[in-house]
Amino acid sequence: MYHDRTSLTPGRLLRRALAALTLATALALGCAWGLGRVGADLGSQGAEALKKAVLRSAVQCYAVEGYYPEDLNYLTDHYGLQINHDRYIVAYEAFASNLPPQVTVLQK
Questions:
Q1: Which residues contact 46 (CB under 8 A, 6 or more apart)?
Q2: Do residues 51 and 92 make contact, with C-beta atoms less than 8 angstroms apart?
Q3: Is 49 exposed, middle or buried (0-12, 13-18, 19+ CB in 10 A)?
Q4: φ/ψ of residue 105, rounded to 5
Q5: What is the pLDDT along the chain (108 residues), one digit of tens a residue?
Q6: Which end of the chain is flanked by fewer CB atoms within 10 Å, N or C?
Q7: Residues 6+ apart with CB under 8 A from 106
Q8: What is the pTM of this model?
């Protein structure tokens, strides 16, 4: 039996190449967008985790010493709190020694 093989004409070859290139570009853009979203989600989760760590340290200080500390330096010096200042901005506002502080963490 004879099967007629249709050869790839230059036009068909060009269309296939463009389709493959379009598909590869779409996949690459989709992956890049997905990785960007994952990075943004991890950054916001890191900021929230840091805020909780600051508040936990402040509450621990209150439980041990009977007052909330006036600033972050006290928590880093005496309670082992570590803050990546290159990545986060932390605002710590203590109103009174018997009230929990207001903590705001922003990602740079």
A1: 87, 88, 107
A2: no
A3: exposed
A4: -120, 125
A5: 555 556 667 777 777 777 777 776 777 776 666 666 655 555 668 889 999 999 999 999 999 999 999 999 999 999 999 999 999 999 999 999 999 999 999 988
A6: N
A7: 47, 88, 89, 90, 91
A8: 0.62
